[in-house]
Design goal:
- The structure holds 2 protein chains of 2 kinds.
- Chain A is α/β, with parallel strands linked by helices.
- Chain A is built from 20 helices and 12 strands.
- In chain A, strand 2 and strand 3 form a beta hairpin.
- In chain A, helix 9 packs antiparallel against helix 12 and helix 16 packs antiparallel against helix 18.
- Chain B is mostly beta strands.
- Chain B has one domain: Ferrous iron transport protein A (FeoA) (SH3 type barrels, Roll), CATH 2.30.30.
- Helix content of chain B is 12%, strand content 35%.
- Classes of the chains: A alpha/beta, B mainly beta.
- At the A-B interface, helix 3, helix 7, helix 8, helix 13 and strand 12 of A face helix 1, strand 3 and strand 5 of B.
- Strand 12 of chain A pairs antiparallel with strand 5 of chain B, so a sheet runs across the interface.
Chain lengths: 484, 85
C-alpha cells in the first residue's frame, strides 16, 4: 500500500482546521489509503503525491484541541505522538495545521507541539478566507517566533501545497530521536501561560485583524432560531430520506434492470439445471441485490458528509442535545446515530469524539439499532414478498409505510434501549456536552468525493459483507422452492 | 461567592473570572479560551428549555450545557468591552 521506507509526516491540528482537506490535496485522490487494523479508530495514511517530488508518507491524525486528551480521538493523537501506538506509527516530522481565521484558538497546540521537540512546520490554512476578511500577517515574524517554517495554504483551493511539502521535507532532522520525546499533562498555569504567549505572538504577527465575517452569525440566527431551527432540522432530515428513496430510486431502477437483464441473459445461454439456478437465482440476484442499493447508500453518505463538512452537523447536535440528554446520550451522539442509518461501523467509529465515557458507551450500544442501509435490500425483498402492494387511504403505498415504520421502529428502539441503560444506572450519571460550532463553509467537493469513494469501496468489499449473506439466504430459499 | 455563567441572560456581555476545578472539562474550558478577563456572551439558547447554550468566547462559538456553564465564574461588568464578537 504505502512504502514504509518513506519518512512519515504527521498532520496535527484542531477538529475544524481543514486538516482532512489538506490531507486530500497532499496525497491526491487516487492514492490508496491505509486504515490501520487493530486500532478502534481511524488513522489514515497515504503517500505524498508523487508530482510533489518528495518521498514522504502523510498520516492524518484525529483532530485534537491539545495534547491533554478529552476524548478517544484526541487520545489517539496523543498516543501516536508519544509512541504509545508503536514506533512504526510515530511520525518523524509534523505539519501543524492552523486555521488562519482563528489563530487565538489554534496557536496553543503549535506551541505545545514545539515544546515536545518534534521537527515541524506550520500550515497556515484557510488563508483564502482570512484574506477575504482583510486579515494580514507578518509571516516572517511568525516563523521567527515559532522557530519553524510557516506556509500559507488554502486546502480547498489547492493553494500552497507544493510549498508545504517542501517545508515538511526541509524540516526533517535525521538526528532527531523520537524516543527521547517526553510529555507531562499541562497544568492550568501552563495552559494560561500558553494563551498569554499566543496573545503576545498575535500582537507582533497580526498586521491587520480584518473584519471577521458576520455570515456565520447571520446564518445561525436562522438555523438556531428557537422556532425555525428545529423545523429546519426536521426538514433537512426529511429531505435526506426523500433524496435517498426517491432520487436514489432512479439509478437503482436502472441497475436493477441491468441485473435482471444479465440474469435473463445468463439463463438463456446456460442449460437449465441446478447449477444455472444457483448462478442466476443465488449469485447474480444475490450480488445484484446488494449492488442495486449502492446509489441510495452513496446518496445517504453524501448528504451526511455535506452536513458535516459545512458545519451544520454541530448545529444539529446543539439542537438535539436536550432530547438526547433525557436518555443519557449527548448532542454529540447525533452524528453517530444518523450515520447509523448508513452503516453502523463508521457510525460507531464516529462515537469516538464523545467526551464522556458513559455517553460514548451508550451511543455505541444503541447505534446498531438504527436501521443501517445494508438491511435495506433485505427489508425490500421481504416486503416485496410478504406485503401486498396496495394503497392505504388512497395515496400512501402500504409497502412504503411498512418500510418507514421499520426505520421509525429502529430509531425508537435505540432511544428506548438508551433509556433502559440509563434506568439501570449503567450510563447517564456523568453526562456533559461541549462542542465548538465551526464557522460555516462551503463543503469541499473533493472531501465529499474522497469520502464517498472510500465508502463505495468498503461497501463492496469487507464491511458490508452481511447483506450478501442475507441475499444468498434468499437465493437459497428460491433455489429450494420448485417455482424458483 | 461569585456568579457563574449558568443563569446569565442571553446577549449580555460578561467577563470571565475563573473556571472551577475538579470537572473533567475544567481544563478544556480554559484551553478553549475561558481565561480571566475574557469577554463572553451567550448568543443562542436551545429551543424550549433554553439548555444547552452557545457562548461566544474569544472569537469561537462554543455550545455547552448550563451545568457546564456553571463551571465558568463570571463578573458582570457594564464596561466589559464588546470584544466577544
Amino acid at each position: 500500500m504505502s512504502d514504509s521506507s518513506k519518512i512519515l509526516v504527521g498532520l496535527v491540528g484542531h477538529p475544524n482546521c481543514g486538516k482532512t482537506a489538506l490531507f486530500n490535496v497532499l496525497t491526491g485522490l487516487r492514492q490508496k489509503v491505509a486504515n490501520y487494523p487493530g486500532v478502534t479508530v481511524e488513522c489514515v495514511e497515504s503517500d505524498l503525491r508523487s508530482d510533489l517530488g518528495h518521498p514522504l508518507r502523510i498520516l492524518d491524525l484525529p483532530g485534537a484541541y491539545s495534547l491533554n486528551p478529552h476524548s478517544e480521538d484526541e487520545r489517539v493523537t496523543h498516543d501516536v505522538l508519544l509512541g504509545e501506538m508503536g514506533a512504526e506509527l510515530r511520525p518523524s516530522v509534523l505539519i501543524v495545521v492552523l486555521d488562519a481565521t482563528n489563530l487565538r484558538l489554534h496557536l496553543p497546540i503549535a506551541l505545545e507541539i514545539r515544546a515536545l521537540g518534534y521537527p515541524m512546520c506550520v500550515a497556515l490554512n484557510m488563508m483564502d478566507m482570512a484574506s477575504a476578511t482583510g486579515m494580514k500577517f507578518d509571516l516572517g515574524a511568525l516563523e521567527q517566533l515559532l522557530g519553524c517554517r510557516v506556509v500559507p495554504t488554502a486546502a480547498t483551493r489547492n493553494e500552497g501545497v507544493p510549498a508545504l511539502a517542501e517545508a515538511a521535507a526541509a524540516a526533517i532532522q535525521p538526528q532527531f530521536d523520537k524516543s527521547a520525546v517526553r510529555w507531562t499533562p499541562s497544568t492550568r498555569e501552563q495552559i494560561i501561560a500558553r494563551r498569554r504567549q499566543v496573545e503576545d505572538i498575535l500582537r507582533r504577527v497580526v498586521v491587520s485583524p480584518g473584519h471577521p465575517a458576520q455570515l456565520t452569525a447571520q446564518i445561525d440566527r436562522t438555523l438556531l432560531h428557537p422556532f425555525w431551527g428545529p423545523l429546519i432540522l426536521l426538514a433537512v432530515i426529511f429531505s435526506i430520506f426523500q433524496a435517498v428513496f426517491n432520487l436514489g430510486a432512479i439509478p437503482t431502477d436502472v441497475l436493477d434492470g441491468l441485473v435482471s437483464a444479465f440474469a435473463a441473459w445468463t439463463r438463456e445461454k446456460l442449460a437449465a439445471g441446478l447449477l444455472t439456478d444457483l448462478l442466476v437465482d443465488g449469485i447474480i440476484s444475490g450480488v445484484g441485490a446488494v449492488v442495486v442499493f449502492l446509489p441510495q447508500i452513496l446518496i445517504l453518505f453524501g448528504c451526511l458528509l455535506l452536513l458535516e463538512d459545512s458545519g451544520y452537523m454541530a448545529r444539529a447536535a446543539f439542537l438535539m442535545d436536550r432530547i438526547m440528554g433525557r436518555v443519557g446520550l449527548s448532542g454529540r451522539s447525533v452524528l453517530p446515530l444518523v450515520s447509523g442509518f448508513a452503516c453502523a461501523v463508521p457510525a460507531i467509529i464516529g462515537a469516538r469524539s464523545i467526551q464522556s465515557p458513559e455517553q460514548r458507551l451508550a451511543t455505541i450500544l444503541v447505534t446498531p439499532l438504527m436501521t443501517c442501509s445494508a438491511r435495506l435490500p433485505v427489508y425490500t425483498l421481504l416486503i416485496a414478498a410478504f406485503i401486498p402492494n396496495s394503497l392505504v387511504a388512497g395515496i400512501f403505498g402500504l409497502q412504503g409505510i411498512v418500510l418507514t415504520s421499520l426505520y421509525v421502529a429502529g430509531a425508537l428502539s435505540a432511544f428506548a434501549f438508551a433509556a433502559l441503560l440509563k434506568s439501570f444506572k449503567l450510563t447517564g450519571s456523568s453526562g456533559y456536552f461541549l462542542l465548538e460550532l465551526p464557522t460555516y463553509r462551503l463543503p469541499s467537493l473533493r472531501t465529499v468525493y474522497r469520502g464517498l469513494y472510500e465508502r463505495a469501496r468498503a461497501f463492496h468489499t469487507s464491511r458490508n459483507a452481511h447483506p450478501f449473506h442475507h441475499g444468498s439466504v434468499v437465493g437459497d430459499f428460491h433455489l429450494s422452492s420448485p417455482s424458483g | 461567592m461569585s456568579k457563574s455563567l449558568k443563569f446569565i441572560e442571553k446577549n449580555k456581555i460578561v467577563s470571565v473570572l475563573d473556571v472551577r476545578t475538579g470537572h473533567p472539562l475544567s481544563e478544556r474550558l480554559v484551553e478553549l479560551g475561558f481565561v480571566a478577563g475574557e469577554a463572553i456572551e451567550i448568543v443562542h439558547e436551545a429551543p424550549l428549555s433554553g439548555d444547552p447554550i452557545v457562548v461566544m468566547c474569544a472569537g469561537t462559538r462554543i455550545a455547552l450545557r448550563r451545568d457546564e456553564a456553571d463551571l465558568i465564574l463570571i463578573e458582570e461588568h457594564k464596561e466589559a468591552e464588546g470584544t466577544a464578537r
